Structures are given as C-alpha cells and as structure tokens.
C-alpha cells in the first residue's frame, strides 16, 4: 500500500470512506510507525555504544596517568561528563518501545515515542553546549601538562587563558554545529516520518 497516496485521497474525500478502508490505512500507519521507532531506537543505541567506547578509552587512559594528578583531574571531568550523558540517554533509550499494539492508545503512544527521542536529542544539544567549551580548554591543558607544566601555573598564565578563550570561541560552536548536523542526518528524516504519521493518524481519528 502507498500510505501517502491513500492518506491524501482519504483526506481529500473528507473521510467519506468505509470502516474497512479506515482500518487498512490505520494499520499501514501503525506498521510504518513501528518500523520508524525501531530505526530510531537502533540509532540511539549506536550513540550509546559510542559513549561507552569513549568512557572505556577514558578509563584506560586514567590508569596510565595515576602519577599525574593534574591530568587525572581533567580526565575525571571528561569521564564524568560522558557518564552523565550516557546515563540520561540510556534512560530515554529504555523508554522507547517498538512492540506497541494497534489500538485506541496507539496515537498517544506514537506521540510519546516522538517526545522521548526529541528529549534525548535536546539533552545532547544542551550537554554539548556545556561540554565542548570544557573539552576545548581541557584538551589545550592536557597538551601543556604533558610538557610538565602544572595546572595551577596554566591558570595564572595570561597567554594560556587567551588561547583557551580563542579555542572556546572557535571549537565549541563548531562542535555544537557538527553534532547538530550529524543528529539531523541520523534522526531528522525518521523523526519527520513519525511526525507525519502522527498527523495522519490524528486526521483519521
């Protein structure tokens, strides 16, 4: 069944259709929405895998930095940020349900799944706004600490602070922009499909 064509025809006829036709189109919307939510959940799971990867690499890196307290401090901040991000996105991931049934509760359930995905992506955007500036300064500090410069000295160095400010001004917005682009590519089309199906289901009901 061509869902878009059938729905448009139904919409143009102002719902002068048989109950069988209505049930058939609702079932098509349900099937398509189930597939869409499944893909969204799969891609969000992939994001969790990446977070787990970075946490693992960070933890291993910390094991090799036990004799450098300043480096451990920065690593700890990075690791904590990724842990918090992973926990929140993981909680949203667990709320996504693929195997929902076609019933009078299908439309509210579809809306709930869309809200969960939007909330997860919105959290990641806020997380990025907070984390990317920290990452820019932290990355710059790590390079200096590896040269034997203490963290306390860096905070008193006007040159370092000026360079750090420049990194934040350039790299942080770039990181947020790149993150938004990647999320739009991975989730944008699927979220639009789900929103379209919600609108179609609302029109039929």
Task: Give your account of this protein's structure.
- The protein is mostly helical and 205 residues long.
- The protein is elongated.
- The model has no long low-confidence stretch (mean pLDDT 86).
- The longest helix is centred in the last third of the chain and has 47 residues, at 158-204.
- 84% of the residues lie in helices and 0% in strands.
- Helix 2 (19-63) packs antiparallel against helix 3 and helix 2 (19-63) runs parallel beside helix 4.
Provide keyphrases for this structure.
205 residues; mainly alpha
Outline of the structure:
It contains six helices and no strands. It has 205 residues and is mostly helical. The two termini are 20 Å apart.
Largest sheet: none
Number of strands: 0
Indicate the overall shape: elongated
Q: Give, in order, the helices and strands.
A: HHHHHH
Overall average residue pLDDT: 86
Structural class: mainly alpha
What layout of secondary structure does this protein have?
Elements: H1 3-12, H2 19-63, H3 69-95, H4 106-145, H5 151-154, H6 158-204
Helix pairs in contact: 2-3, 2-4, 2-6, 3-4, 4-6
């Amino acid at each position: 069944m061509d869902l878009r064509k059938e729905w448009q025809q139904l919409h143009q006829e102002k719902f002068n259709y048989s109950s069988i036709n209505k049930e058939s189109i609702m079932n098509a919307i349900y099937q398509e929405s189930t597939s869409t939510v499944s893909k969204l959940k799969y891609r969000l799971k992939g994001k969790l895998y990446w977070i787990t990867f970075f946490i693992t690499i960070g933890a291993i890196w910390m094991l090799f930095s036990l004799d450098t307290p300043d480096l451990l401090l920065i690593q700890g901040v990075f690791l904590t940020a990724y842990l918090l991000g992973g926990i929140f996105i993981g909680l949203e991931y667990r709320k996504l349900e693929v195997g929902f049934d076609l019933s009078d509760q299908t439309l509210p359930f579809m809306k709930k799944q869309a809200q969960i995905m939007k909330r997860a992506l919105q959290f990641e955007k806020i997380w990025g706004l907070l984390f990317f500036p920290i990452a820019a300064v932290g990355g710059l500090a790590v390079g200096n600490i590896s040269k034997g410069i203490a963290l306390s000295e860096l905070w008193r160095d006007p040159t370092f602070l000026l360079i750090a400010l420049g990194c934040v001004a350039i790299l942080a917005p770039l990181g947020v922009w790149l993150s938004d682009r990647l999320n739009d590519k991975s989730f944008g089309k699927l979220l639009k499909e789900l929103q379209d199906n919600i609108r179609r289901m609302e029109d039929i009901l």
